[in-house]
Amino acid sequence: MAYLQVNEITKRFGGLIAVDHVNFEVEKGEIVSVIGPNGAGKTTVFNMLTGVYSIDSGEILFDGKAIHNQKPLKIVEAGISRTFQNIRLFPNMRVIENVLVGTHIRTQYNFFDTILRNKKYQLEESEKTKRAIDILNSLGLGDRIHDYASNLPYGDQRKVEIARAIATGAQLILLDEPAAGMNPQESEELLHFIKELRDKNFTIVLIEHDMNVVMHISDRIYVIDHGKKIAQGTPEEIINNERVIEAYLGGTRNAGD
Length: 257
Ligand SMILES: Nc1ncnc2c1ncn2[C@@H]1O[C@H](COP(=O)(O)OP(=O)(O)OP(=O)(O)O)[C@@H](O)[C@H]1O
Ligand SMILES: [Mg+2]
Known about the structure:
Elements: E1 4-13, E2 16-26, E3 31-35, H1 42-49, E4 57-62, E5 65-66, H2 72-78, E6 80-82, H3 95-103, H4 111-116, H5 119-138, H6 154-167, E7 172-176, H7 184-199, E8 203-207, H8 211-217, E9 220-225, E10 228-233, H9 235-239, H10 242-256
Parallel strand pairs: 3-8, 3-9, 6-7, 7-8
Antiparallel strand pairs: 1-2, 1-4, 4-5, 9-10
Helix pairs in contact: 3-5, 3-6, 5-6
The chain binds adenosine-5'-triphosphate and magnesium ion.
């Protein structure tokens, strides 16, 4: 069984079947992309993986355990974390504080340790701060840690979100359109950073419209259209897949109407 095993998941919103019996798997250490036209159901898949939405049928197994229909916090504790298509940072908090929010999900000290601010609390806090700074340094944000999140350029805010996802201690990171709003240089940097994450033994699932990013970093790609998986394969196979080309051209034609 794969590290992440998704079997026949379905999500309905009233009469709309947003995700229709979708299967996919991700092995440890892979970078897997999920692509497809707008409204295809990609973010809905992430929302089911992270417990934001329940699933109507199917199952999701992570590291051999069923995780579907659990609370989002439980899923983070199990080792899956994400970023959002629309940036969700605390704009009035500093960069470092935003990343520390991620580390606090797995706090070992208890309520009394906190109010007493005792040794255990202080030690753990300083270790977490150090780790948060390390993560921000690795993203090239070391000199922005005391800035307010809202003062950062858009591309850097996306990186802070990734930093927060990593800071939770999760091993499987889901990125929902991380290159959106980035300029070509920023998306090139992002590409390198995602590869570095893989080299550090993270597993990545990526939703992305930037085909330069998708084709250069994906080990494998799944294509969703109208809630259904229509193709899977290597970047090479996907570029040449008739159904994929048709789905994208169809989308462009509709958008132009
Ligand atoms: N909470 C919801 N309630 C009702 N419909 C929803 C809800 N969330 C998503 N949908 C619908 O489900 C379908 C899939 O949406 P989803 O956001 O998963 O698409 P997507 O592939 O991420 O698209 P995009 O590339 O534009 O982000 C769309 O038709 C959308 O309107
Ligand atoms: Mg989406």
